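ok trying this again, last paste got cut off
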Amino acid sequence: MLKTFILRKNLYRSTMTLLACLASLSCHAFSEAPELAARVAAGELAPVQRRLPDAPEVVQAHEKDGHYGGTLRTALLASGDENGVLRFIAQGMTRWDQNFDRIQPNIAESWTVNRDATEYVFRLRHGMRWSDGVPFTADDVVFAVNEVIGVREIFGAPADRYQAAGQTMRAEKIDPWQVRIRFAAGNRMLPEELAGPYGHHPVIYPKHYCAQFHSAYNPHADEEARAAGFAGWAARFNRECGAWGERWYTAAKPTLDPWVVSEPLGRGATAVVVRRNPYFWQVDQAGRQLPYLDAIRFDLYKDANAIQTVAVDGKLDLQIRHVSGVALRERFAPLVAQGSHALLRLPEVNASAVGLYLNHTTPNEALRALYADVRFKAALSQAIDREAIARKVFLGEVTPWQVGPPAGHRFYNERLASQYTHFDPAAANRALDALGLTQRDAEGFRLLADGKRLSLHAIVNNYSTQMVDTLKLIKPTWAQLGVELLIEAQDRVVVGSRARVNDYDIGVDVVSGGMDPTQNPRAYLAQHPADSRQGLPWVLWYNSDGQHGIEPPPAMKRRLQLWDQWKAAKSDAEANDLFRQILAIAADELEVLGTVSAPAQTGIRAAGLHGVPDNMPGAWIWPTPNPSLPQQYFFANY
């Protein structure tokens, strides 16, 4: 049963050391998968005692009788869904525990932090190795922090998780197993960020491999990159040692993950396959090296409908993405009835299932001026029939909602939850008339001062049928208001590319914040470099200390100042007060329009697959199912 998801913990007491849960296991207690034992016997691989750290982490598996073997089958979209691999296998310096509610050591064995959260010391696991057998040490972390995250040619403007007071964090080697990370000002969020999908960078760049592509270590790196068809050394570095989808395009890069790429992504690929890492650093309670599963196969499909078809046919062992909704639950009923599969319930952690991120930095200057007026945004909100959306798209499982945390939450803000959610087209029309938008064209659409039609271009991922269907219900009610909504449902890669170049008027996505809005405040703050789509150039301005991007208006600048203070807060009480101020200003500005609350998600699991919690939250911030430790999943029939 899931514990309450109150995610913010006091992670930075002045002398606190967070220790991993390590059982006492002598070397002779360790064992390994049969396929690895065979390689040891053949002289191809060192004995398990020499492959594990001196004190491997002992994982408390969900079930004690787990055993080795089998390939787990799951599915991803062929384009723009590469992070689905990361959800299953990626490891960070820290991690969320198996209840999804507390940060604990992971690759780092422990850490300490000073009182003002400006200095962290991470102790690494002595004897841990990359998947090619090379030791993982503080040198790798220093390389990742100083030579990758800190280099703009590679990383761009670092996200705020890696900086404070306009300066990027720096790393210093204390000894081979200890590394110090310093900030120019307090950053209380670092342990949580290192556990999430956006914070794995300090431990994914093996220096002995990636340095060959780096100009600071290879004087011929740029020449070699151009000869290989890249624009320069940094472009090649990001391909060969990439942080996101690029990670799965090569089988050569060493990793600390439970499985390593054996069949990579690439042109014409039909699947990504990852196989057991012989140097993985965790064991179960009996001293058996994890993972249990031999491999995970991520089959690639062109669209969500294709994934749903193979899932309904019972051909997948575990599927969480692209299979939610009441109609799909009904289609899964025969599988459940025959006992071959079980349904998973993933409580939703988002504040709104469909959010309209109004791009306040749109190149359309006339529209930008309208977005600056709350009356215009309130009118758009009042012209959304949320009851119809809840009934027709979500079959009554949700309620009208803006973008705030739910009632009863410590950050509940009534205005941020419910203002302008009542469907009132008459009031909306009066508001636009009062703004001087009284001229209309032959089709009834309002005209801007320059005589052009008031049209809003909304970009949305085409695989998200619920978002597209929601927009289709908004389109006619906005048309009655005299506002044209142009729905541009495109491949996720295209949508992301358009967002990066600021080519949209509305970005459509979920609104995070249902469980802990401080974990992903992208709808309230211009702080997320990819997803704060109410103003991505504002994010660039913030992350570059004003050197690039577009300077935000005073209300956003004030929130960013409060966010910096929140990161440096010395107590939970101080931090909570600061974040409430951020939410109050967000309620004033109405930059993101919510539609309805978020429903629970659905997943499907083969009955023979064990170790998978039947009830875990579904969200990218952890990312699900990673905290449940897929390395301890196993098949009962092996």
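PB: full thing came through this time. The mean pLDDT is 92.
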